[in-house]
Task: inverse folding
């Protein structure tokens, strides 16, 4: 299978490329290297089934030329601004990098008759609610441009699937953690401790609590949904077991990387930044019914990710 | 109250301007005259509380200058491509005219501290389902770019309301009919009969069946939602009573405007065009609980609209 992975040099994209190659796929990895890094895919560069192309998918002529040349069977669209806080004050950043990249990829797929799409979505489409989030939960009231732009992109994927004969799988990611991440709570803490090992400032009151999933388990979720989904549009949630508070993450990171006298200081308030969803819970039973099983409790995933990140460098 | 109505020279916008003026509002009506028409607002031009400005809301500097000058208290954002079929093959048309107009208006509101927004949305966000559509129905799987772009716009309105301190009312319109419409099934039929009174070609098999609402009743729904909604984001549905089939509309139009020997011919298939939702049913009970009552059965609304259109010219 000839597969395009957009955002393939990024955190999750690079792990996905590895697994697709291991399954015998031919992988065209494109990335504009905004968040992606060459070093994430350096170990794949010599494989004959792997090609890296530095390309911004918003560059429509370049993308069309690649589709012409490569005759893809499928597209895994992961290119995005994955840093929710970065887009918090800007109406256009997530719109362009999350939604318009998706629309551009869909246009190219339609023009070149490519039918099969995987789309990386997010829990942030739901906004703030205490409910257990199953796939058909409503209302969808995002509180961040990240969530709004991913919901918008899902809407276009729906049209592609239902009206243009596409076959799409949408997996809404939880907080995904592990080596090669470029941002997120664990990285923030590690970088702060590097700058000042005596003190760790935590945004919010530390009671924000979310499900965290190790990237390896997430990639298995992607492939399970891809292999087993039926119909034009399959929508799934994936989460680890349980949730972990930011306070617990701070203590785990300090225990692994801090000094014995590191003070943890909370800035206060119920969330890290405007648009941060302080708490959510995911129902992954639809994907579990297809055979996927999360391997770790959320807090074990955090411990494992911290260990892997420290071993790999950040 | 100093009110901006975008798309104010359009079909629904011009009716809304009338009612806002009648309630004592000061109305700035902006329209790029793509679908709007000067003649729709000609009867308002002499009123001291009414101003018309020919302006495309995608023109950000021009919009910012207007916000600077006018110090609005509220915005009713109706500017859109309301012609679903027109955007059927084009990934960008509805995206720009429905979503990006909304994002541009929200940016201007935020920059100028304007908090109160009315947004015109649509049943098309839901896609194709036989379910009775209440406001929190899911999944949302639009099948047209029109529906996708309005869902995307709703997502940005949600961020504006929940994260930037706005107060927004979203009313999802059904099929709205009446004088000054620029397109839609009644107009299509009248224009076809004008060209050939002997034959009326109907797209699809005629069994498409939807709720139709007369524009006067829709404007009352807008104002009820506006006056009574509470909280940062109020979402409502409005529909007339029951639904009307396209076959019945064809017969009503032929009886009113055709000849006794007009033949009605169906092109076949279950829908008018790709992306057309052939059937839907709306639950308006949330808005009715606020005091709004649809005045007519859907089919009576069709008869009344045909009468008004023939009296007003088209």
Result:
């Amino acid at each position: 299978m000839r597969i395009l992975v957009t955002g393939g040099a990024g955190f999750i994209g690079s792990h996905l490329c590895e697994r697709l190659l291991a399954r015998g796929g031919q992988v065209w990895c494109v990335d504009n290297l905004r968040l992606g890094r060459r070093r994430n895919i350096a170990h794949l560069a010599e494989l004959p089934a792997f090609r890296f192309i530095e390309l911004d998918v918003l560059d429509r002529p370049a993308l069309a030329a690649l589709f012409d040349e490569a005759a893809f069977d499928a597209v895994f669209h992961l290119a995005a601004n994955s840093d929710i806080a970065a887009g918090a004050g800007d109406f256009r950043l997530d719109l362009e990098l999350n939604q318009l990249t998706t629309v551009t990829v869909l246009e190219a797929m339609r023009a070149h008759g490519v039918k099969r799409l995987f789309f990386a979505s997010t829990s942030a489409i739901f906004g703030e609610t205490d409910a257990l989030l199953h796939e058909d939960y409503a209302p969808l009231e995002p509180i961040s441009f990240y969530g709004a732009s991913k919901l918008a992109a899902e809407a276009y994927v729906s049209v592609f699937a239902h009206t243009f004969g596409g076959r799409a799988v949408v997996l809404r990611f939880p907080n995904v953690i592990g080596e090669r991440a470029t941002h997120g709570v664990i990285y923030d803490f590690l970088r702060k401790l590097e700058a000042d090992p005596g003190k760790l400032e935590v945004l919010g009151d530390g009671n924000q609590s979310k499900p965290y999933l190790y990237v390896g388990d997430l990639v298995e979720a992607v492939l399970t949904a891809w292999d087993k989904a039926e119909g034009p549009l399959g929508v799934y949630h994936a989460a680890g077991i349980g949730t972990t508070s930011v306070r617990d993450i701070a203590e785990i990171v300090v225990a692994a990387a801090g000094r014995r006298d590191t003070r943890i200081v909370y800035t206060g308030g119920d969330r890290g930044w405007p648009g941060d969803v302080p708490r959510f819970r995911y129902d992954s039973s639809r994907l579990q019914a297809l055979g996927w099983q999360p391997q770790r409790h959320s807090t074990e995933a955090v411990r494992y990710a911290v260990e892997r990140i420290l071993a790999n460098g950040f």
